[in-house]
Amino acid sequence: MLYWICISLHLLAATLWLGHMFVWSLVVGPAIKRVEPPATAEFLRERSLFMGGLGWPALAVLIATGLYLLSMRGISPVDLVTGAAFTGNGGALAIKLFLVLLMIVYQAVWGHRQAGGAIYFDMLAALLVLGASVVLVRGWSG
Amino acid sequence: MTGSLVTAYIHLVLTVFLVGYVLYWAIMAVALRRTCDPDETLRLLAVANRARWPHVVVPWALRLPLPFMAWAFLLILLATGVALLSGHDWSPVLLLKLALVAALAGVQVILTRRPVPTLIFVSFGLALVIVILSGFLTRT
């Protein structure tokens, strides 16, 4: 049961964090900019950001549940450090964890500040992480 | 790489977008209720509901109001979800998930016309429960 709860929490944290990032950056943020009058647009934009980002709390949940889920596959943190986890069919895991590391660096460097073009690399990394996650669960054959 | 892998990927990405969308409205409802009276909250939610996407390049008349984005997410999720159903038994968890998806779509019908905080929170809660149930349906 704990295994299923961890999968659900992992999925929940990922969708909330990445959904927040994608929808604010690509959909509602730009759309709200064009609301008239501009003062209302600015008020709505400021209100939509009042809670800040979800990056660090989501990452805490994702790392904890991710390590547990890997342990259920027989992969320990030591295997991650030594690289033993990435041999054989561990390519998708290697790609995912490398990209997650990049996203953590992004989170640490830019956090909730204006990131300029860097956020697009962060979103690309997120899309690739999701792809690697699908491959990890379903295998390359689907 | 197979079609089902691509379908699962699209389903996951669109889930992320839909959760982000309902999260946006939940945060907006909370934020406006903290600073505005109920009537002003409803007015500002309606203003936000009329915002259109994308904000550049496309002529105004062709831009999609925000609720239509939610419908686009839901329709793609429905199509990919149906395609992925072939790999699943009709378990109680799956049936419950589908019932909640139907409820979410029903709530979205009302929110498309008039966003109100109570239904926004219901929509957010439904989406979170659907994601949690999806975790129980994930392949091991």
Task: Tell me the layout of helices and strands.
The complex is a heterodimer of chains A (142) and B (140).
Chain A lengths: L1 H32 L4 H11 L6 H18 L4 H6 L8 H19 L8 H21 L4
Chain B lengths: L2 H33 L2 H12 L2 E2 L10 E2 H19 L7 H22 L3 H21 L3
Antiparallel strand pairs in B: 1-2
Helix pairs in contact in B: 1-2, 1-3, 1-5, 3-4, 4-5
Please explain how this structure is put together:
By secondary structure, chain A is mainly alpha-helical. Chain A is 75% helix and 0% strand. Chain A is elongated. The two termini of chain A are 25 Å apart. The mean pLDDT of chain A is 88. Chain B has one domain. Chain B has helices at 3-35, 38-49, 66-84, 92-113, 117-137, and strands spanning 52-53, 64-65. A two-stranded antiparallel ribbon of chain B has the order 1-2. Chain B is globular. The two termini of chain B are 19 Å apart. Chains A and B meet through α1, α2 and α6 of A and α1, α2, β1 and α5 of B.
Briefly characterize the structure:
Chain A has 142 residues and is mainly alpha-helical. Helices cover 75% and strands 0% of the residues of chain A. Chain A contains six helices and no strands.
